[in-house]
């Protein structure tokens, strides 16, 4: 009997661009892209209309792709309070939609996500995008960066959620790549 994949919806919250990415992750930690996109709202709209657009977009992704769990980027303090407020509002909407569908939701910090997918918690956006393309066997990195970040969140959550399948490596693919490179360098 084959163990089913875990379907994770990753959400990179933002008011203007809210990245959404859905992946299926097998017990051996291999992953497959299901959906990637961005929910957009115009800065010219009133805040309540913008939040409604984000909620409707996330609801549509959940309804169509039926994830098992939702992973959202944890809001952290930035220098720009206006930006933090919009991100926090979009994050709240994402968590609310997960609750509306009865889905488990989790939050992950940007450094957790970067470390999970690249092996380095301070990786830049280009490194995250390149690794996401590699891990999901895509021809090119997902654009814009919000979309790649959403996929990274989904992968991070699946890999950090619990133990891998029996006999599978407990390391994430990024950690395995680093370990393999270190072994090769020592030879």
UniProtKB/TrEMBL annotation:
Q: What is its EC number?
A: 3.1.21.10
What does the entry list as the binding residues for Mg(2+) 1? 12, 146
Domain of life of the organism in this record?
A: Bacteria
The protein's location, in the record's own words, is:
Cytoplasm
SUPFAM superfamilies tied to this protein:
Ribonuclease H-like
Catalytic activity reads:
Endonucleolytic cleavage at a junction such as a reciprocal single-stranded crossover between two homologous DNA duplexes (Holliday junction)
Active site positions, chain numbering: 12, 73, 146
GO molecular function: any one? crossover junction DNA endonuclease activity
Top class in the EC scheme: hydrolase
Region ranges (Disordered): 164-187
Per the entry, the cofactor note is: Binds 2 Mg(2+) ion per subunit.
The family database entries (Pfam families) matched by this protein are listed as: RuvC
* One GO term describing the cellular component: Holliday junction resolvase complex
Arranged from A to Z, the UniProt key words for this protein are: Cytoplasm, DNA damage, DNA recombination, DNA repair, DNA-binding, Endonuclease, Hydrolase, Magnesium, Metal-binding, Nuclease
State any GO BP term from the record: DNA recombination
Residues that hold Mg(2+) 2 according to the record:
73
Q: Just give the chief location class.
A: cytoplasm
Q: Which InterPro entries match?
A: RNaseH-like_sf, RNaseH_sf, X-over_junc_endoDNase_Mg_BS, X-over_junc_endoDNase_RuvC
Cofactor requirements of the protein: Mg(2+)
Q: How does it assemble?
A: Homodimer which binds Holliday junction (HJ) DNA. The HJ becomes 2-fold symmetrical on binding to RuvC with unstacked arms; it has a different conformation from HJ DNA in complex with RuvA. In the full resolvosome a probable DNA-RuvA(4)-RuvB(12)-RuvC(2) complex forms which resolves the HJ.
Q: Entry's HAMAP family? A: RuvC
Which purpose does this protein serve, as stated in its record?
The RuvA-RuvB-RuvC complex processes Holliday junction (HJ) DNA during genetic recombination and DNA repair. Endonuclease that resolves HJ intermediates. Cleaves cruciform DNA by making single-stranded nicks across the HJ at symmetrical positions within the homologous arms, yielding a 5'-phosphate and a 3'-hydroxyl group; requires a central core of homology in the junction. The consensus cleavage sequence is 5'-(A/T)TT(C/G)-3'. Cleavage occurs on the 3'-side of the TT dinucleotide at the point of strand exchange.
Q: Which family does it belong to?
A: Belongs to the RuvC family.
Q: What is this protein called?
A: Crossover junction endodeoxyribonuclease RuvC
Organism from which the protein derives:
Microbacterium ginsengisoli
């Amino acid at each position: 009997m084959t163990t089913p994949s875990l379907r994770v919806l990753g959400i990179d919250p933002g008011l203007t661009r809210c990245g959404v990415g859905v992946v299926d992750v097998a017990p051996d930690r291999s992953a497959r892209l299901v959906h990637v996109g961005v929910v957009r709202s115009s800065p010219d709209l009133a805040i309540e209309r913008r939040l409604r657009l984000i909620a409707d977009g996330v609801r549509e992704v959940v309804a169509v792709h039926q994830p098992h769990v939702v992973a959202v980027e944890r809001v952290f303090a930035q220098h720009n309070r206006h930006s933090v407020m919009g991100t926090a509002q979009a994050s709240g909407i994402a968590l609310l939609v997960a609750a509306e569908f009865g889905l488990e939701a989790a939050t992950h910090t940007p450094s957790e996500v970067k470390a999970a997918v690249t092996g380095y918690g301070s990786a830049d956006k280009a490194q995250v995008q390149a690794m996401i393309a590699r891990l999901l066997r895509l021809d090119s990195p997902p654009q814009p960066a919000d979309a790649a970040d959403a996929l990274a969140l989904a992968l991070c959550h699946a890999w950090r959620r619990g133990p891998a399948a029996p006999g599978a490596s407990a390391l994430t693919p990024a950690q395995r790549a680093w370990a393999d490179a270190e072994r090769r360098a020592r030879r």
